[in-house]
Amino acid sequence: MTATAEPGAGAGSGEIGRARRRKEDARLITGATRWTDNIQLPGMLHLAVLRSPVAHARITSVDVAAASRMPGVLAVFTGRDLADEQGSLPCAWPITEDILIPPAPPLAVDEVNFAGEAVALVVARGAAEAQDALAEVDVDYEDLPVVLDLVTAVAEGADVVHADLGTNTCATWVFDSAAAGTGEDVDRVIEEAEVVLRRTFRQQRLIPAFMEPRSVVVDPAPDSFTVWSSTQVPHILRWMLAAVTGIPEQRLRVIAPDVGGGFGGKLQVTPEEVLTLLVARRLGKPVKWTETRTESMLSAHHGRDQVQRLTLAARRDGTVTGLKVDLLADMGAYLRLVTPGVPILGAFMFNAIYKFAAYRFTCTNVFTNKVPTDAYRGAGRPEATFAIERLLDELAAELGRDPLELREQNWIRHDEFPFTTVAGLTYDTGNYEAATARAKELFDYDALRAEQARRRAAGDPVQLGLGVSTYTEMCGLAPSRVLGALRYAAGGWEHAAIRVLPTGKVELITGTSPHGQGHVTAWSQIVADRLGVAFEDVEVLHGDTRVAHRGMDSYGSRSLAVGGTAVVLAADRVLAKARTVAAHLLEAAEDDVEFANGAFTVRGTSGASAAVGFGDVVVAAHVAHDLPEGVEPGLDAEATFDPDNFSYPHGTHLCAAEVDTETGAVRIRSYVCVDDVGKVVNPLIVEGQVHGGLAQGIAQALFEEAVHDEHGTLTTATLADYLLPSAVDLPHFTTDRTETPAASNPLGVKGVGEAGTIASTPAVVNAVVDAVRHLGVTDVEMPCTPMRVWRAIHHRETDVPATPGAGGGLGSLDASGGAR
């Protein structure tokens, strides 16, 4: 059910909710974009990076003599050359006071800790010349023990990634409902429970695989530096580059031009951004670095990678009572920008929409000799949703209950909002019943259950499974005081400024930095709707720290709920000043002046003399010939918004999957999702975000996995090996929405960028398991490949990795798991 674009130009009345085609698309689809790699500057040099082929070793020597003599080569740098100025890459989320944060040099000096780590740089006049010279850099390594498996890494006597730390445990973070005063003691509740389920699930390692590879261009001037980067976070990048390099922040200008996707993968301060800046400073020339696809997969951060040990307590009637989560989360070799905080976001979501009496979450963050993990679409919340939704299906099977009926018994009812959860969050609004009822109707749930029973009775070799996922998520990452309490270094506020030009046109400056979300269109709709100007008359400026000087950028589904609200507040301030000027022009009391359809009128009067258009007020304010006493010229305004609470989208996703029991092949027959994202600014954009999220969540369930061999080499470092689904691999999606406006912002919006990814993975896996549960299967490890499904059906080992866990192939570690 895809929204269709409405025609229309002109005044902004009714823009909110209109399915406008995106302003950005004409430029994007005709190739008139300006990606970072398209930038060409006079005298520009090209940077290439030599990467370690081994996962853990001492660097005993680096010989650059031959490379330095190669045609076009101007310089070759080793870690030793830059050791005194490169600093250490920042970690902005030290989740505990005693967290261990090893130095993370952008260019390795004495030791490499993952295959793909940068060990030398070549600077040449051309990109091809720089790449050719890499082959002539001779590096000798002394191998060290490789740590790959999470469980083994925390065992007594394990080899360590960082010898000076003496342990692979980075930090342990605990939330206990009894200690926090939000619930009961979970151990007592489990001990007294009538039903106790224990399960272990594995979240495989994923690669963001954004469409546009990372790229950086640095142009040095005598007293400043301009940095173009394919980044989600230009403001944070500027701040961190100044902190790492010591360059005064006011002398750094960061620009995020057109950015071809991120999914959290560009929420980072990368080694290459720092190194390109340092090389440009050293040589006094513009320098560009653009990665290859394999470089991206080898060295850009990965996502997920957890072992989840779970205990669920319930009464025999199906009422859930307690939940205990023991998590091992793979940090990789270093802590990048928000690495340790990602699994902590899940701490508040394992309880999901259910009314648990007791809850404890313990997360142990673990170092391994792999590329660091960090934010990936959903960041901690898909992992939590997967676990609880798989557990609810397991409980339903244990009790012989319908999984949807069991969920309804335990979820927060619509008349109980606002509701404070056992994890201490206050959900402001929601209606899980309405979303589920609509999803069941569109899915034809009862008819599919009947068909499933018939096919089981007939012994059909192709079995039908129905998967359920009822979810909520915390998004709109803010408020700042909460982030501060979680030890996050940055704030969660957002900024917007509106410049009203003399001709009545509007320039909006936003601190958010879009990379495919459609901000230019949606923000134009908000301003047009608020100020009564034409949609086409709004220009949105973003992604340049010299133009948009304040901002916290785009991630965590925060742009609309936080950044869009800042736009509303700025527009309201413009309107308030305009009303003051209009009242003066109309010789009326300000309280008597009303604004509608782009004009100010005096309440209770009519006729041309009793009205003044917004454009006339703009001119009057600009020329300042006749302004009220104390009113400054112009109508420009700005605002910053820091919400009091997160926003909480929710929804119900239903999946029907057919599983061939003879081959293990899985086919999604139908997929229905009904999401509640609050008020919708542009339904067309929302549909696109949902479809993209579904694609990524289904991909985790069925296709994607980053696999390492026993030496720590990533064996899925190309798109020929790392399986991304194409359009033909995905089903038709039936989508719909219910609407309960958020109470945390005046727009009533909740966020949609991550919802599809969060909900879809457990829906698909639950469908696969449901199809073959009657054959004794209670789990299939992700991705549910035909071989893994076949082995589970035939009660074989789910995987035979070269070293246990190296490829993420742990299967179900619980003795009752279906794969064992």
The average pLDDT value, as a whole number, equals 94
Show unreliable segments.
Answer: 1-12, 798-820
Using only C-alpha atoms, the radius of gyration works out to 28 Å
Question: What is the distance, rounded to the nearest whole angstrom, between the alpha carbons of the first and last residues?
Answer: 41 Å
Shape: globular
**How many distinct beta strands?**
28
Outline the secondary-structure elements.
Layout lengths: L24 H5 L15 E7 L5 E7 L1 H4 L4 E6 H4 L28 E2 L5 E7 L2 H8 L3 E6 L6 H4 L15 E8 H4 L5 H7 L2 E12 L8 E7 L2 E6 L4 H12 L6 E4 L15 H13 L3 E4 L2 H7 L3 E12 L5 E13 L9 H4 L12 E10 L13 H19 L3 H8 L8 E2 L5 E2 L4 H12 L1 H14 L3 E11 L7 H6 L8 E7 L5 E5 L8 H13 L6 E4 L17 H28 L6 E4 L2 E4 L8 E3 H10 L13 E5 L8 E11 L5 E11 L6 H20 L30 E5 L17 H18 L13 H8 L27
Question: How would you describe this protein?
Answer:
Helix content is 28%, strand content 23%. With 820 residues, the protein is an alpha+beta fold. The strands form 7 sheets. Strands 3-5-1-12-9-10-11 form a 7-stranded mixed beta sheet, sandwiched between helices. Strand 26 and strand 27 (666-676) form a beta hairpin. The protein is globular, with a radius of gyration of 28 Å.
Relevant terms:
alpha+beta; seven-stranded mixed beta sheet; 22 helices; 28 strands; disordered N terminus; disordered C terminus
Q: Brief description of this entry?
A:
By secondary structure, this protein is α+β, with helices and mostly antiparallel strands. It is built from 22 helices and 28 strands. β19 (494-500) and β20 (506-510) form a beta hairpin.
